[in-house]
Amino acid sequence: MSLQNASIKVTHFIIGGFDSVRRPVAVGVVMLVIYLLAVLANMVNVIFIISDKRLHKPMYLLICNLAVVDILYTSNSSPTMIGVLIAGVNTISYVECLIQMFVFQLGMVMELFALAIMALDRLIAIMFPFQYHTYLTNTRTVVLACMLWVGTCVYVAVPSASLVRLPHCSSRLRYAFCDYAAVIRTTCIDPNSSFNEGAIILSFFFFFTFIFICLSYFVIGFFIKFSSLKDKTKMGSTCVSHLIIVACYYCPLFVLIALTRVGVVLTLEERQGLWIWTILGPSLVNPFVYSLRTKEIKNKIFKVFKKG
User: Fold this and answer.
1) Which among 88, 242, 272, 307 is least buried, having the fewest CB atoms inside 10 angstroms?
2) What is the pTM of this model?
């Protein structure tokens, strides 16, 4: 009863994560440039892969899937943050905030799964080079990706649906956009139990995918070790791109986890900076890494410029 008496009707949330930023417009412009480059580069990769039938292969379909995840992930929260910094629009409607929270969690988990199945692709390609297209067909690749999308949507929908029923005691978000941690803090309940449950499940996905990727490359390294120099060069070149992307995404998250575990208290600005990098950084790096290191995509880009 006390919760109901203390609760308020929330139609809009106030975004307060950037209140202490000294030069908001400059920061916003930098984020806007990075965001536009990331979206444009990922869209180019998607269009090239879809339009060229020669690129309709499992590896390129997975690159396309990663590009779609990156576009979704970065386009969900970046416009809101850029709007706050440049235009000073620091409010967001209740429904829009919940949608943003859902899509943000969906993109974050799907990024983990996208990187994991790309490691599986490289593992099969190196372990079974002659049976690769038999084991991992285009149809199986698409079905696997769709299953992960559907499963992740179901998983993310559960906490989002449970949050809708909770009363709110505040309309001010502590962070720079609508994520689960920010929204749950505005409710009238003790957020610790919800944080613990969410952290356990998310940590499982995080460490499961990371361990799977590490084990995949341990096996790949074993095969490369006993291969000829020519095969080593070829195998290594197909894996370097993926490893760069894995490092870009996992390193900031490991920094957050490691510093928290050793008792280092990050300021709100430092924590948000790491989160913003996990959103914008990999989304910008991914398409350029694959464009420059993947022969077929690089050749197609050069042909387009030559025609122009």
Assistant:
1) 307
2) 0.89
Give the three-state DSSP class for 255.
helix
CA 98 – CA 75 distance, rounded (Å) = 15
| Residue 209, phi-psi category: left (phi > 0), alpha (psi -120 to 50), beta (remainder) | alpha
**Mapping DSSP to helix (H, G, I), strand (E, B) and coil, where does residue 172 land?**
strand
**DSSP SS3 for 238:** helix
Overall average pLDDT of the 254-264 stretch: 68
Q: What is the DSSP letter of 55?
A: G
Contact 247, 285 (CB under 8 A): no
Mean pLDDT of the chain: 84
Q: Which amino acid is at 105?
A: Q
List all residues 6 or more positions away from 157 whose beta carbon is below 8 Å from its beta carbon.
102
Taking the C-alpha atoms of residue 143 and residue 149, their distance in angstroms, rounded to an integer, is: 10
- Residue spans of beta strands (DSSP E) within 11-54: 12-15
| Under 8 Å between Cβ of 136 and 232 | no
Instruction: Indicate if the alpha-carbon torsion angle 37, 38, 40, 42 is positive or negative.
Output: positive
Residue-wise pLDDT tens digits, 127-146: 888 888 889 999 999 999 99
